[in-house]
Design brief:
Blueprint: H1 2-15, E1 29-33, H2 34-43, H3 47-59, E2 68-74, H4 75-78, H5 88-114, H6 126-129, E3 150-156, E4 161-168, E5 175-177, E6 201-202, H7 208-211, E7 216-219, E8 222-228, E9 234-245, E10 251-264, E11 272-275, H8 283-286, E12 291-295, E13 305-309, E14 318-323, E15 333-334, E16 336-341, E17 344-345, E18 363-365, E19 372-375, H9 376-388, E20 395-396, E21 405-407, E22 413-417, E23 419-423, E24 428-431, E25 437-439, E26 445-448, E27 450-453, E28 458-460, H10 462-465, E29 468-473, E30 478-483
Parallel strand pairs: 4-11, 5-10, 18-28, 19-27
Antiparallel strand pairs: 1-22, 2-3, 2-13, 3-4, 3-9, 5-11, 6-9, 7-8, 8-9, 9-10, 12-13, 12-29, 14-15, 14-30, 16-17, 16-23, 20-21, 21-26, 23-24, 25-26, 29-30
Length: 486
């Protein structure tokens, strides 16, 4: 009945300019397909999912592209959840734990930059982490699951050998595990061997690339690198150049990458990481790319999408300005001004999303963070606006960092309030219901996929980005969102 009334008000207001009924704008609702979401959670732990994923992996053929393009795969594609988690709820808690480590890492990096510090001021020298005796040690398996959720298939060396690499817009240095290993975690592909590539070339300490590293050292004239992450993980090794290939779409020579001999607690399954940040050492900067884009498929799906460089901006995209932080060039800050729920603007001071003169605050878009984090006041306002319109739905106990959850176990679909993000310039992005209400188990518990942070910096995570091509126009400093464009 309420839905019929809402439709009537929309119809009535279209043809009447004086009716008092139009003064009370009806709330907007969207449909969440509960059955489909729960089917995906169950499929992850089925043999059919594993067989399908393996077949996709074996049969994948890159299509010829005018731009540089590689495929994107989900974590489940490489690292089967059934092997390390007893059920979907355990998988959810593992994902959220990784996500918290990721968020702490980004916030720490931002805070250090604002204070004018780098990790080198807090870390031990590289030489203490990588010694000659370490290089003779055997390969060992890592125990941490890391924070990588999406991987691309990239070729390294000449002739090229293919590796699964985490895509990361929150860091700059591209690296992969490298023989001889002092300490290497388990990965899907064979570990990279420098002698197998005719284009492998160590960088000297006097090279521009070496001087651009946050943490570096010299050994026998060669440049050593170290990259540390907020959860205590790190990678250490030789800083070199080699050829990087993007399937049949092309290759680029003399790309500076880390050849990691000591890699602690990082991304099990992947060979390393593609740094897609805005700094001078990032892959995008080294490719001199004018743009790049990615589309992140549902993490519970075995489907794939693409990571593209120098492609055209999708028509009909929602756009927002990319903002510059003079203290930190790695992150992609975006002009977010607020949210609406049910089609009504949420009362949140825009200042909560702005960056101050010191470089604090602001909003970044990150491929590696799952759950969008908002300052406490902003999160509380958004959550309260949502719960006011969902009082008729059966609530469920909180799960980990989620304090707003629902029991949809008896439903195949449900109407929920719409949620939209509003950007500087006046455009808005309406989120699909599955991008803000996500299953946390296989029995019908769904949670509101936002969380609070004590930091002044907000992070738009990949759950909200799923199914949307996110386009970074680096030349015009514009970010674009194109839904259903994977």
């Amino acid at each position: 009945m309420a839905e019929i009334r809402n439709r009537f008000l929309v119809f009535f207001c279209t043809f009447s300019l004086v009716s008092t009924a139009c003064l009370s704008k009806p709330y907007r609702f969207s449909s969440l397909n509960v059955s489909s979401s729960l089917h995906s959670t169950l499929s992850l732990f089925s043999s059919q999912f594993q067989i399908y994923s393996q077949q996709q992996q074996l049969n994948t053929i890159e299509d010829q592209q005018d731009t540089l393009s590689v495929q994107i795969h989900t974590r489940a594609y490489l690292h089967a959840p059934v092997k390390s988690h007893k059920d979907y709820k355990a998988l959810t808690k593992s994902r959220l734990a990784r996500d918290t480590s990721r968020v702490n890492s980004l916030i720490s990096k931002a805070e250090l930059a604002v204070r004018g510090l780098t990790h080198s001021a807090l870390s031990n020298p590289v030489e203490t982490l990588l010694s000659e005796s370490d290089l003779a040690a055997p390969v060992t398996s890592g125990t941490s699951q890391g924070s990588g959720e999406y991987f691309s298939r990239v070729g390294v060396g000449y002739p090229a050998k293919q590796y699964y690499m985490v895509i990361d817009t929150g860091s700059d240095v591209t690296w992969l595990q490298c023989e001889p290993c002092s300490d290497c975690y388990q990965q899907t592909d064979p570990i990279y061997t420098p002698s197998s590539s005719s284009t492998y070339s160590p960088l000297t300490c006097s090279s521009q690339q070496c001087s651009s590293l946050e943490v570096s050292a010299c050994r026998n004239g060669g440049c050593l690198y170290q990259v540390s992450y907020g959860d205590g993980s790190y990678t250490v090794g030789d800083f070199v150049t080699d050829t990087v290939s993007f399937g049949p779409s092309g290759s680029v020579s003399k790309v500076a990458i880390g050849c990691g001999h000591d890699n602690e607690g990082l991304f099990v399954g992947a060979a390393g990481l593609l740094g897609l940040g805005g700094g001078p050492l990032s892959l995008t900067s080294q490719l001199k790319a004018t743009s790049f884009s990615y589309c992140l498929v549902d993490r519970d799906s075995a489907r794939t999408s693409t990571l593209e460089f120098n492609s055209a901006i999708p028509s009909g995209s929602v756009t927002a300005p990319i903002l510059k932080n003079n203290k930190l060039n790695t992150f992609y800050y975006i002009g977010l001004t607020g949210f609406s729920v049910g089609g009504q603007q949420v009362s949140i001071p825009p200042s909560l999303f702005s960056m101050d003169d010191s470089g604090s605050g602001g909003v970044i878009v990150d491929s590696g963070t799952a759950i969008t984090r908002l300052p406490t006041q902003a999160y509380n306002s958004l959550r309260d606006a949502f719960t006011r319109l969902t009082q008729h739905l059966k609530s469920a106990p909180s799960v980990a960092l989620f304090d707003t959850c629902y029991d949809f176990s008896s439903m195949s679909s449900v109407k929920v309030p719409t949620v939209a993000m509003h950007f500087a310039g006046g455009q808005s992005l309406n989120l699909p219901a599955k991008n803000y209400l996500i299953p946390v188990d296989s029995s019908g518990t769904f949670c509101f996929a936002f969380a609070e942070t004590a930091s002044s910096m907000s992070i738009i995570g990949n759950v909200q980005q799923q199914g949307t091509r996110v386009y970074f126009d680096l030349g015009r400093s514009v970010m674009a969102f194109s839904q259903n464009n994977c």
